[in-house]
Amino acid sequence: MTSYDASFRVWRGDTDGGGLKDFSVEVNEGEVVLDIIHRLQATQAPDLAVRWNCKAGKCGSCSAEINGRPRLMCMTRMSVFSREEVVTVTPLRAFPVVRDLVTDVSFNYEKAREVPSFVPPPGVAPGDYRMQQIDVERPQEFRKCIECFLCQDTCHVVRDHEENKPAFAGPRFLMRIAELDMHPLDAAEEAGLDRKRTAQEDHGLGYCNITKCCTEVCPEQIKITDNALIPLKERAVDRKYDPLVWLGDKITRRRS
Amino acid sequence: MTQAERQQWDVVVVGAGGAGLRAAIEAREQGARTAVICKSLFGKAHTVMAEGGIAASMGNANAGDNWKVHFRDTMRGGKFLNQWRMAELHAREAPDRVWELETWGALFDRTKDGRISQRNFGGHEYPRLAHVGDRTGLELIRTLQQKIVALQQEDFRTFGDYEARLKVFQECTVTRVLKDDDGRVGGTFAYERESGRFFVLEAPAVVLATGGIGKSFKVTSNSWEYTGDGHALALLAGARLVNMEFVQFHPTGMVWPPSVKGILVTESVRGDGGVLRNSEGERFMFDYVPDVFKDKYAESEEEGDRWYEDPDNNRRPPELLPRDEVARAINSEVKAGRGSPHGGVFLDVSTRMPAETIRRRLPSMYHQFKELADVDITAEAMEVGPTCHYVMGGVAVESDTAEAIGVPGLFAAGEVAGGMHGSNRLGGNSLSDLLVFGRRAGLYAARYASGLADRPQVTDARVHAAAAEALRPFSGETADGTGARPENPYALHQELQQTMNDLVGIIRREEEMRRALRNLAELRLRARGAGVEGHRQFNPGWHLALDLRNMLLVSECVARAALERTESRGGHTREDRPAMERAWRRVNLLCRIADPESPEGQIALERTTTDPIRADLLSLFDKEELVKYLAEEELYE
Amino acid sequence: MATGTDRPPPGTDDTAAARRGRGGVHGPARATIAASHLRTDRWWLAPAATAAGLLAFVVYSTWRAFANGDYYAAPYVSPFYSPCLAENCAPMRGGPNWELFGSWWGLSPALLILIFPLGFRLTCYYYRKAYYRGFWASPPACAVAEPHGKYTGETRFPLILQNIHRYFFYAALPVAGILTYDTVLTFRDASYAWGHMGLGTLVFLVNIVLIWAYTLSCHSCRHIVGGRLKHFSRHPVRYRLWGWVGRLNARHMQLAWASLLSVALADFYVYLLAVGAFDDPRFF
User: Which residues are annotated as active site (chain B) (predicted)?
Assistant: First the structure.
């Protein structure tokens, strides 16, 4: 394969407005969209703002929307496009724009702070933690998250409804609650914190209508909906809507 | 010029990777009001790229392990050039640092009896690396990040403000460590990448935790952040950099496609059974076991293969030699014409493990090759070659306190600090280094800050000077002052990377290093004329123009020290001086700023000698082994 | 700073804009892009196909449920009419005739029982996704703006009732049990002699396997058998069950469609026999 010139449309602008600008730019074998954006920086638009770090799909910095789909620029190979295709790159459209491809993702950091942290089990010294592999595997899946915030970006609850942002933590942080609730040694419940209940009451679990876009865009292939959100919904049901489970819990707790 | 905003803190941590966050947590827990500044978003630091694990002699997988064995491995790996006290502290404290992570919510892979599982790695005698699949660095960063959030939540409950005592300034770059008139550290000068706004964080103690210098090389596993900022900040603040000639080339980076050249292929691929082959299908590593390691490594493929199942009665395969050895071996094979189609060698797991096992144990490697190179590692071999990975050299610090020698109030931890790893770092020792010395830096920085009678004052003049320096790229001053077209910072950066890669790379020669120094001097002059367009808002061209100063400083340190050290050892290999010289073992080369305006170069070299290794530590080694490293007189002492 | 965690100054958020009706991706703080999405693939295909498929089933099943006839052709009973709980049911020898509702029920007996599978599927996590996307366009596809001005999801009545999915799962178990019984009865011939098999028997077998697979692959089921546990290691049997259900659950969507199709086909097969369109080919 030889190199060729691709047509790119890149959103340029800032808080005052902006628009899609057309570029013609060289593409070589094996390159990804981020390489092309870097070539634009080096040759045609030295002040083109873009976030990136590892360039290997591990840090989750270079999130953007490519042909309308939320993706990591470093993991989108140019070979998935035909040579004639115009490749459109825009910033994430669920968050306020800062400049060019850079958006203000502070929403996510605020939400991260609202999730109560891991509660260490009282009386267990460091080094004495014992957990079984099969017990840690479930939360480990969620800890693969690289916080690229593509799921937060694609989730229509906040993407299409800015007014829901205060009430809704978004898939990434609902998943974080699920992770902590499945942590084999998390002692939140003993400390009086019911994560299942707060997921629904404080973090907006009910807004999720499980349409699975978060799972679709996840570059780490985490089954956010099936393994985190739906189980969390079911756990909330245990607490709030299921007298049978409630009764069962009462009985077994008395026994043990 | 608008007045830069000033804020008062007790401790400022520059860098939010493993060392920076660990330092911040410690400083805050000691009661210091702590600010963290990082160039990227919070939680994106380069630490996430660490894959293999955290080395700590917990003895979960093999009860024979303890800190003494770990110390021994570290010294051997570093060819005895390590600051032995740092290696000792590191080996002693690493297990506690790992266990502590669990109390903050980390979820490591487990052994059958529920303890932290530990895996084999190059240069480690026992399975020692606590890990989470092959994404251990991410787990480390996330755990520390979440611990910081936990502390902020605590402060929110107490003060009603999350950032009352611990604040992260993300996407900000520090360009100067500011000092008071007595030469004490007084704070940092920084700009917000997003707006270009300048601000000063005044603090009596500054912890540098900025990582490495890989972006000065063309083929590197490091991200754009690794421009040697902390190294340069320390130099400019009057500190010394120690043993900068030691740069680790990781033996296995991707070589294809070109856009991902250099991206790391974790050592766990070899730790878990992957083997290196040349184009003739030969496991060539058996031909490259150096004398000092001869009795520690398998002599036949059969023995090496048995070792994975029965490590007590067999010796490990030579694929697990320290990184410098493997990198050199790959380099030689490629030079001898036995390389792979794209100029690397083959790393194969597909014939060694069932596909299911590969996907389970090396998920992100599977993913990385599938997505970036369209290679299915369960079905075919990977192509790999050496990539610039880590700098062993760094700020010369006090071993116990992590305080930079000669600059009161300046601390350094992690990759930016030198000495701990000697001439070559073992895999897995980096993450434990971050935790052990990150904590120490935070602890002693907080103590130092609270112990001062008066806060250092930073004058406006110093702030103005820093601001003027940061704005220079916009005026595009040219080398000859004629106002010709300004230099493109991207082009300068590429030339710098090419120079370092070709002339001060994995194999070095005197003439080439001299040429590199001439190139660097020329580049430095041209860099003064690096100009940028646009304004200060999130302007990557401007950011790069500022980073060039740091990369040029650090590159000169590497080249100058490499030229000076006339031997080969660890991460410093000279074709014209191929042998390791015992006389050089105790010699440390220190770089300092000589004359920032001199056309020949701005770095001067000094020599110091390491203190003799303490007797009880020395007694951990066999006499025959010590003979290979230590000079005659040291042995008799 | 805006990339930090400082609160933005008041007035810069989008809520005001949302009230003015130009919210979401057209909010004032977001990147100014006129198009409500920039997807170039055929994103509309999946929701359109889903909507068409579901609509076809709704039309067919409504017709059949209200038809109140042609649902029994010995030995086969249509799954839409099983169990038959009213007096006006066709007599089915040995079949699922239980006159719980007596004679006052004058409508089609299918309506009495279809409530349960309907409720099970209506609150199913997969079907929710399907119809929220296909019918409600909420969202029509990922990163395609939805046309609604306001969205509260499943936080309020009536959608908060989706949380009772679990009860429908409990109810779906006996229904599946009865359909299994019906399938056993298909091993008779038209004169109720055991030990025979026809093409219909195969249709019923396939249907019941798919019905069970769909029912057991339910997310609520996955939760109940083991998902709710914090420590799998203390419940090895439930862990194994959870693993099996999890493997089925990964195919929940496919099973949902397959079982929907198969139940309609089983009913249609009975209908064709009942109206005498052809005779059931007998194997033995």
Answer: 323 (proton acceptor)
CB of A243 less than 8 A from some CB of C: no
- Which pLDDT belongs to residue C195? 93
Q: What is the 3-state secondary structure (H, E, C) of A64-128?
A: EEECCEEEEHHHCEHHHCCCCCEEEEECCCCCCEEECCEECCHHHHHHHHHCCCCCCCCCCCCCC
If asked whether residues A134 and A51 sit together in one domain, one would say no
Determine the Cα angle at C212 with ends C209 and C214, to 5°: 105
Tens-place pLDDT, residues B92-122: 999 999 999 999 999 999 999 999 999 998 8
Place of tokens 């010699």: B587
For the whole model, what pTM was predicted? 0.93
pLDDT attached to residue A54:
87
* pLDDT over 90, % of chain C: 80
Which of A19, A105, A234 minimises the CB distance to C228? A234
CATH class, domain B473-609, is mainly alpha
Q: Determine contact: B605 vs chain A, CB below 8 A.
A: no
Last residue of a domain, one of A56, A75, A103: A103
When mean pLDDT is compared across B26-35, B449-458, B502-511, C82-91, the lowest value belongs to: C82-91
CATH code, domain carrying A13:
3.10.20.30
Do residue A21 and residue A93 come from a single domain?
yes
Q: Are residues A117 and A236 in the same domain?
A: yes
Q: Which residue has the tokens 């303490």?
A: B614
Residues B548-560 have a mean pLDDT of 96
When pLDDT is cut at 50, 70 and 90, the band that residue B481 belongs to is: low
| Domain count of the fold of chain A | 2
* B323 has catalytic annotation: yes
Residues A8 and A56 in one domain: yes
Query: Is residue A82 located within the same domain as residue A119?
Result: no
Q: Three-state secondary structure along B546-608?
A: HHHHHHHHHHHHHHHHHHHCCCCECCECECCECCCCHHHCCEEEEEEECCCCCCCCCEEEEEE
Nearest Cα to C127, choosing from B458, B131, A209? Answer: A209
Are residue A175 and residue A199 in the same domain, yes or no?
yes
pLDDT more than 90, % of chain B: 81
Domain boundary among A69, A103, A137: A103
Q: At what angle do helices C125-134 and C252-274 cross, to 10 degrees?
A: 90
Contact A59 B40 (CB under 8 A): yes
Tokens linked to B13:
């941590």
C244 Cβ neighbours under 8 A, 6+ residues apart: none
Query: B249-388 maps to which CATH number?
Result: 3.90.700.10
Test mutation, C1, C6, C232, C233, chain B, max B CBs within 10 A: C1
Contact C153 A208 (CB under 8 A): yes
For residues A35 and A124, membership in a common domain is answered with no
Is the Cβ of B263 closer than 8 Å to some Cβ of chain A? yes
Residue A219: CATH number of its domain: 1.10.1060.10
Residues of chain A with pLDDT under 50: 256
- Spell out which residues of chain B touch residue C3, defining contact as CB-CB under 8 Å: 41, 170-171, 194
Residues 6+ apart with CB under 8 A from B103: A120, A126, A129
Please count the residues of chain A.
256
Q: Which residue has the tokens 């390389």?
A: B339
Q: Give pLDDT, residue B312.
A: 86
A-B CB pairs within 8 A amount to 173
Residue B194 scores a pLDDT above 50 = yes
The pLDDT of residue B483 is 54
Write out the H or E segment, with its range, that includes residue B323: helix B323-335
- CB atoms A94 and C25 under 8 Å: yes
**Domain with A72 in it:** 4-103
Decide if C191 touches B, using CB distance below 8 A: no
Domain layout of chain B by residue ranges: 249-388, 473-609
Which pLDDT score is estimated for C15?
45
Judgement on whether residues A63 and A148 belong to the same structural domain of the protein: no
